[in-house]
Protein: 3-phosphoshikimate 1-carboxyvinyltransferase
Organism: Vecturithrix granuli
Amino acid sequence: MKKFIAPTQINGIVAAPASKSDMLRAAAAAYLTGKTCEIVHPSFCDDAKAALGIVSALGTQLDLRSDNILFSPGNLKPEPVLDCGESGLCIRMFPSIAALRPETMTLTGRGSLISRPLDMIVQPLRELGVVCQTNNGFAPITVTGPLQAGKAVVDASVTSQFLTGLLMALPLCQGTSEIIVKNLKSTPYIAMTLHLLEQFGILVEHEQYEHFLIHGPQPYHPLSYSVEGDWSGAAFLLVAGAIAGNVSVTNLKLDSLQADRAILDALARCGADLTLEESRVSAHQGTLYGFEFDAVDCPDLFPPLVALACACKGKTVIYGAQRLKVKESDRGIALLTEFRKIGANIALYPDRMEISGSELDGGNVHAYNDHRIAMACAIAALRSRKGVTIEGAECVAKSYPQFYEDLQSTAVYT
Ligand SMILES: O=C(O)C1=C[C@@H](OP(=O)(O)O)[C@@H](O)[C@H](O)C1
Ligand SMILES: C=C(OP(=O)(O)O)C(=O)O
């Protein structure tokens, strides 16, 4: 699908969509309770649908309604294949969870997921008693449990997502596990996992996110879990407000542990005019200045920050470009190529991106089947001379199916 975003001023109020990261963790946790559980304000983005498909294939009965989902344990045997769609979190979080069962299961995926690395999963799972095989470090990945408590070393330099899965599965094993984590990146995502576990009644001890002690068995307590609003999706809307008008985003937890809440810091650094009220953040257009920002631990902020930097006077440096290679696209290259097409002055280095603010001309871009590239190009279009046509625009459904409608609802036509 091609989508044209016209240059326009915006003014409006948008409710942040449900957080994909929180939703996927909640779906896994609801399954792990083994009891009847509810998720309120769920996400039905593509990655959430993949997670729901997996817990259903693992034997959970789901009662899907528009504003809640009821999970109840089924007595069926799990299906042998778990389809992760294009979700990195699903294919790295669910192997440990699937391996709690003794049956052999294969986790597969599609599109870019096929070329995203899974090699960090194999050795630790083997150390914990699981028979585990990948296709030369890539999908599909096959596991035969049961996972057993023990000691393992996890390399988290490429992704935190496998550690999330391990921390969710090991509390259900008999005995104490010790996990040594090397070179963790995206640390706030692990803080988020630990916070969710606490809400389900599970305590994990750790020292500086390097040494984790997990006592088991600790049962998950069933509850009615409300999914937080998504700071990652909200980041695009707030940048849109800061560069092209006024936007208020509601349904945001101001003390959220989500990594992308750091958009507030980035917006403050460039001098954006922000108002924070209870569960609502407003961004108003004003003069913006180039800034420096370290996105190593919040890599999903790169795309909205590139759009922001284009509207800032002077030079912006965003660190952490090494974290962009194995996302839904090679995001460093995708941002460089597509933003250059619409007139941005942008350079990519191994560890950073540098952008010199300038008026964008607009034109045609490709989304690389990457939701965050599509959303970044859409908000950059608001301040461009001719507007931007995004090819493959439908990929926003991976995390934020209502994105274009929400953005459109704020447009002010003069
Ligand atoms: O745990 C999560 O929900 C996520 C962790 C991050 O991945 P990495 O840990 O691979 O950086 C992030 O980029 C991804 O969008 C979601
Ligand atoms: C990288 C992302 O997700 P995942 O790794 O879960 O596919 C993302 O949502 O930007």
The mean pLDDT is 97.
